[in-house]
């Protein structure tokens, strides 16, 4: 990419200076097309999120996967050429960091027994690395300043086992740093989601807000009532969300066991999500998490924090006096707005518990479960139709073709099982190829015959698959077999 601020540093050979603008534009378009192709392969997506400012990122994402049309990238290039110098500097720093990660990857550094692949995060606490051990991937959070209290509280996370909590596998000391080996999550956090929707001038759909709320209440019920734990630092940056709006809570460094007869009055957490009791240095309970939940919901609905001020004292005053703007009417239901208002009750005895909130939204939970069940039923019905089609074709196969027919049936069964399998455990590129092939043969047209396609697959044809990007039937067959072995199918 060549921004106008960098044009003077660019040199073309055998091109007249009067043709420089056209040459630069073409170079930019081809570069962005290459980057979009790489992003389409679902590799290193976090780098693209860091590289582009939000407005450009959304334009970049909106271009279809594997789009080869040069005109599709023209507006993206025009907007790129208009970004401010400070944004350009940030992009340059990200590229430099990526280059350092590439160097690190090729020098094979390690943290303990884990091979470092690249750095995926950095902050005042330390750094986060994508690592590998055997064939599995992990995120390792390396904390520079190790405190005995901090190390002890991390042990709480090791006790937890919930589908909406990021798993902590182990922790150890490496070169005077505390290292937390946690589940590697692909996606974004709620803070990034809010920022992205704001840049697009869109709201998060209410149905998706309910999904996030139900998952959060499920986690908090588990923490408060099953484990007697208060999180104490629930905020949008600590909530990971995937494309289906399922969430996982991370960062339990401030979590603490509590008892009903023990007074908690230590100041912890992020101030703008902190309840009035903590701000006033009064006793507080697990309902501090309910207040934080209300702050998170408010921010999803309004796309800004409930309490804001550059001055910490003024911010504390606003929290204690409940000075926040009312939620805009007409976008979200009164039921959802009421949940936020209840969570932001100043007095703890008026603030509902997690169980009371779950009782209030029981109908929403039933509707969500019905939706999930319907989606599973639809998927099951689709596969049954496919099985019926292939059974009909196999039945018509001649006796002398019974052995090849059996191979076709076996590969078809594997396709179905991989499609039903948890996608999070599959290689992203392999997932895309397998799913695209399955969908194409599931709805055959005049040019596609399911029996023919599967036969080419099992016979290891070296012919390129016309509707997939430069891959042969033989290559796809081995991809399917490899994934089946890795998933123990």
TrEMBL record:
Signal peptide start-end: none
Keyword Transferase listed: yes
PANTHER family per UniProt: SERINE/THREONINE-PROTEIN KINASE NEK (PTHR43671), SERINE_THREONINE-PROTEIN KINASE NEK10 (PTHR43671:SF92)
Chain segments annotated as transmembrane: none
MF GO annotations: ATP binding; protein serine/threonine kinase activity
Source organism superkingdom: Eukaryota
Keywords (A to Z) from UniProt: ATP-binding, Coiled coil, Kinase, Nucleotide-binding, Transferase
Residue ranges of every copy of the Protein kinase domain listed in the record: 114-363
Family in the record: Belongs to the protein kinase superfamily. NEK Ser/Thr protein kinase family. NIMA subfamily.
Coiled coil: 369-396
InterPro entries assigned: Kinase-like_dom_sf, NEK_Ser/Thr_kinase, Prot_kinase_dom, Protein_kinase_ATP_BS
SUPFAM superfamilies the record matches: Protein kinase-like (PK-like)
Binding site for ATP: 141
Descriptive protein name: Protein kinase domain-containing protein
Organism from which the protein derives: Paramecium tetraurelia
């Amino acid at each position: 990419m060549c921004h106008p601020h960098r044009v003077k540093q660019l040199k073309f050979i055998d091109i007249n200076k009067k043709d420089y603008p056209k040459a630069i534009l073409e170079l930019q378009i081809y570069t962005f097309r290459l980057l979009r192709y790489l992003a389409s392969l679902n590799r290193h997506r976090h780098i693209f999120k860091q590289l582009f400012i939000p407005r450009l990122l959304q334009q970049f994402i909106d271009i279809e996967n594997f789009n080869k049309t040069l005109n599709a990238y023209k507006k993206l290039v025009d907007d790129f050429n208009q970004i401010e110098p400070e944004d350009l500097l940030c992009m340059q720093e990200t590229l430099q960091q990526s280059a350092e990660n590439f160097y690190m990857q090729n020098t094979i550094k390690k943290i303990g027994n884990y091979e470092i692949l690249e750095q995926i995060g950095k902050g005042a606490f330390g750094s986060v690395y994508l690592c590998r051990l055997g064939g599995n991937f992990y995120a390792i959070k390396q904390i520079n300043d190790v405190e005995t209290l901090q190390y002890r509280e991390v042990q709480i996370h090791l006790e937890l086992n919930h589908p909406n909590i990021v798993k902590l596998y182990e922790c150890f000391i490496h070169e005077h740093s505390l290292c937390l080996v946690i589940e590697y999550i692909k996606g974004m956090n709620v803070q990034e989601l809010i920022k992205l929707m704001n840049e697009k001038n869109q709201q998060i759909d209410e149905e998706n807000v309910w999904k996030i709320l139900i998952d959060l209440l499920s986690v908090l019920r588990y923490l408060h009532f099953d484990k007697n734990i208060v999180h104490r630092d629930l905020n949008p940056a600590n909530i990971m969300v995937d494309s289906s709006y399922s969430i996982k809570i991370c960062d339990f460094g401030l979590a603490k066991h509590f008892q009903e007869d023990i007074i908690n009055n230590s100041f912890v957490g992020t101030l703008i999500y902190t309840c009035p009791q903590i701000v006033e240095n009064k006793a507080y309970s697990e309902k501090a998490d309910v207040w934080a939940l209300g702050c998170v919901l408010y921010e999803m609905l309004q796309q800004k924090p409930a309490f804001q001020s550059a001055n910490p004292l003024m911010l504390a005053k606003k929290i204690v006096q409940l000075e926040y703007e009312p939620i805009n009417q007409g976008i979200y239901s009164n039921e959802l707005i009421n949940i936020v208002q209840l969570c932001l009750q100043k007095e703890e005895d008026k603030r509902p518990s997690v169980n009371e909130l779950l009782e209030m939204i029981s109908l929403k939970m039933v509707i969500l479960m019905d939706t999930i069940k319907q989606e599973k039923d639809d998927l099951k019905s689709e596969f049954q139709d496919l099985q019926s089609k292939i059974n009909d074709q196999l039945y018509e196969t001649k006796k002398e073709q019974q052995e090849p027919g059996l191979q076709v049936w076996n590969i078809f069964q594997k396709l179905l099982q991989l499609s039903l399998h948890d996608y999070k455990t599959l290689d992203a590129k392999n997932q895309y190829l397998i799913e695209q092939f399955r969908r194409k043969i599931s709805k055959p047209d005049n040019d596609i015959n399911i029996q023919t396609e599967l036969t080419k697959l099992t016979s290891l044809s070296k012919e390129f698959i016309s509707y997939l990007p430069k891959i042969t039937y033989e290559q796809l067959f081995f991809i399917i077999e490899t994934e089946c072995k890795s998933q123990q199918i």
